[in-house]
Amino acid sequence: MSASNVSGKPRLGVNIDHVATVRNARGSSYPDPVRAARFAERAGADGITAHLREDRRHISDADIEKLVSELSKPLNLEMAATEEMQSIALRFKPHAVCIVPERREERTTESGLDATRHEEHLKAIIGPIAEQGSRVSLFINSDIRQVEAAGRVGASVVEFHTGSYCERFFENRLNDCENELNRIREAAAFAASLGLEVHAGHGLTFETVTPIAEIPQIAELNIGHFLIGEAIFLGLEQAIRIMKKLMAEARKI
Ligand code: PXP
After folding, report:
1. Catalytic site residue 51?
2. pLDDT tens-digit readout, 159-215
3. Whether the CB of 52 sits within 6 Å of ligand 1
4. Is the beta carbon of 222 within 6 A of some atom in ligand 1?
5. Does residue 142 contact residue 168 with C-beta atoms inside 8 Å?
6. Of the candidates 98, 85, 81, 90, which has an alpha carbon nearest to the alpha carbon of residue 157?
């Protein structure tokens, strides 16, 4: 299957970070993100995503250890480009690693990585992780220069940050929203033309997922905060089933 013409429906990676956020709010042992991952697998998640932040505000090292040993679906470890995180990735050998920018004062990953500014550093972090067999992606904005840099530093995947698109949608700025969607569409086509696999995520909901899932080059979406919130009302499995159905319908499958 050519990377520039991904046929079939996009995969769903379920991000379980915010199950750990709720657990850590009380310093208790529950709710357990690994248990959530098992529910997600049962509901049809194609993979599980977890972000081990430098300040360990949600997912812990012990969670990653358990996920690696207990999951039946692939684990996508999101991490900052630091030597500490590189050694954790080399120790646990997850199926995939997604390099994200991290600032301690941010509430969430607010923007994509500036790969053009840190090429040598990224190469040094990515090289050994890719060599051990983990698929490496860079979380970037839908910007052609960032896509080119991702190719140069040795990533095989780019994940486009959909946060601006979602914000504009919910602020009802529909022209801006369409402009941002066009930027993502163009960047996805360009990335695929370079042979990169294309993913997307951040802030996606039942209302915003369809135009993103429709983009033909997109092979995977990573969605967390909305699904974990919706689990309060629908249950996690049902929330995931609806999201998967919307993604499949977007590809008319
Ligand atoms: N993809 C990446 C690289 C992320 O950092 C995040 C947020 O942790 C997501 C996807 C999922 O975003 P959300 O939790 O808003 O669905």
Report:
1. yes
2. 999 999 999 999 999 999 999 999 999 999 999 999 999 999 999 999 999 999 999
3. no
4. yes
5. no
6. 98
